[in-house]
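thought: fold this chain, then report.
action: predict
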Amino acid sequence: MPAITEHYPVPDRTYVKRIRRHAPSSLIPLIAATAATLPPMSDPEYRRSLKAHLYNPWALLDVAWVSLLRGAENRSRPARRGDLEEMLQLYFALDEPMREKPVGERLEGFLLRLAGQQFVWQEPEFNELARPVALFRHTTAADPGKAKVITPGWDERLLGCSISDYVGVAQMLWGAAKAQGGRFDPRQMAGDLGSFDGLTTPEALTRVIDLHFATNTGTLRDDAEASVPKGALRRFGFNPLRGRPALTDFGSGYLLPVPEAALAKVSPFGLYYTGWEAHQKAFADDLGDLFQEYVGNQLRLIKGAKVHPEFKYKDDDREIVDSIDW
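observation:
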């Protein structure tokens, strides 16, 4: 297989054309099966892998997205592991959209895009699962009476289940998909849902998955057409499989092209967008107040530290303003 540097720079259309050689029904299950075998990015085993630079979640998810968005089922050649590796080689050799800019501007833009593309995938998995419960269930805002949306029962109203169950759904999707080649079938869970508060049947579990985690190829295409950036910036746009990581039209149950995307859905970052979609600024304001106290709780864990909350003071113009939060 040629080195990435032998391909560079690759136009986005060349990359898309390579992916379109294979039907989504062949390529997407291959991506899911491959992603399921990869160790977590936080695992030293991943960093020691010779293919770590190729087989990572954001690249695999981009190949899946392009296949779903631009692929066609009239392709007869089945996708194999070597085909997927070639697509990933091309992905990492894609042309840099600001290559002709001055050095400083080019470097700054490159690092910002890279951070947005990659850093969100590099949180330890169990930290991501613990934070939303610590934030939403075990933190109280300084003035709970100010809350407009995040009030008692907000999670049942927004998510269709408790925040603990919502996190449990993501953990189940992720764990089952990693163990079963990217697939999860709720019917297999009958009689094995005792750890949930209210999702005690496969039907209840399916309802929450369909409401927040699942989509299909047709819906993805309809939603993405208007929002996909054009040309070389395309891969830095929002990948809808981050918001809906489970596919319903690839056999029974659900297929997760990249199981780690299910964890991103229930992270505080993912929950922010879920709440924003339903309540806009009211949810963001409530979450900001809650997050401020959450940060304070973390700072209080520092041994020997004295932590002061924000206070009001007069600035140089004699106006009353708030200090920093802590």
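thought: worth noting. The first strand starts at residue 183 and ends at 184.
final: tokens above.
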